Amino acid sequence: MNAPLKQHWLDPTRHLPGALEIRGLGKQYAIEGKPLTVLENINLAVKPGEFVSIVGASGCGKSSLLRLIVGLEAEYSGDILLDGERIVSTSLERGIVFQDHRLFPWKTVEQNIALALKNHRLSSAEKARLVAEHIQLVNLQGFEKAYPHQLSGGMAQRAAIARALINKPKILLLDEPFSALDALTRVHLQRELQRIWVQQRSTMIMVTHDVEEALYLGDRVIVMDARPGRIKHEFHVDLPHPRERKCARLQALKDELLTELVGNDREAPAHP
Q1: Is the bond into 269 cis (omega within 30 degrees of 0)?
Q2: 50-77 pLDDT, tens digit each
């Protein structure tokens, strides 16, 4: 009788690119000559094509974790592996979108996006095709020749997302990408990002302070604790995409997540 197959051999995503594994990750900074631990014993596995949201109080190391995954910092203990290879520096395999769009103000939308292809050995025609394709992906048709100051904040951030995706990275990291936007624009871009993710199925990891955003977009929500930063809890959002914001299950998860983050108000001591 044949032995049963191990579960990971049954995983349909096993051989797809974009598998991230973090094992025993630790990170310290030197503050006035003394070590300050910002991340401690982080263990996390992200499947190819998965969308993971990370939430937690300020100072819990969320952004530091993203910087390590993208390769902006090389000094750490433990392992960060992308498709089995240890991350030690930046790479086009990992894209990142920050809170601000970071577009070059003297270049147009299409020129800013095309900059990401500068070191690729592609013909000018092929580069132009890819730029046009990604401008369409983020719904910026008609603004190809516009400069950043001529765009709204949401449009500029969409251009930044297109620039990050044009290299077809195995994993896209988003560091509070919508935090500087007004509420209506933020809701619209959340919907746009969900559409892009469903269409592209890139592996995405997003840091956010917005609980609703984390649940609306994420397959999982990782809750981090501070001093030092570590994983405290994990929520599985077992809902199909695209999602309805008013879904009862989403609202129930929001209540659970808020309780995990801030505790139960009924348990708080009354003020004298």
Answers
A1: no
A2: 999 999 988 899 999 999 999 998 889 9
CA distances from 135 to 44, 114, 183, 214 (A): 33, 10, 24, 25
Taking domain 12-93+170-262, whether its CATH number is 3.40.50.1000 is answered by no
Residue 10: Cβ-neighbour burial (10 angstroms; 0-12, 13-18, 19+): exposed
Here the tokens at position 250 are 């989403």
Check if the beta carbon of residue 66 is closer than 8 Å to that of residue 96: yes
Residue 61 is inside which H or E element, if any? none
Entry field: residues in the chain: 272
Output the pTM of the full model.
Answer: 0.88
Copy the structure tokens of residue 109: 């939308």
Confidence of residue 8 (pLDDT cuts 50, 70, 90): very low
Identify the band that residue 34 occupies on the pLDDT scale cut at 50, 70 and 90.
confident
DSSP letters spanning 190-258: HHHHHHHHHHH--EEEEE-S-HHHHHHH-SEEEEEETTTBEEEEEEE---PSS--TT-HHHHHHHHHHH
Domain range summary for the chain, segments of one domain joined by +: 12-93+170-262, 106-168
* pLDDT given at position 230: 94
| CA-closest candidate to residue 116, choices 100, 93, 83, 144 | 93
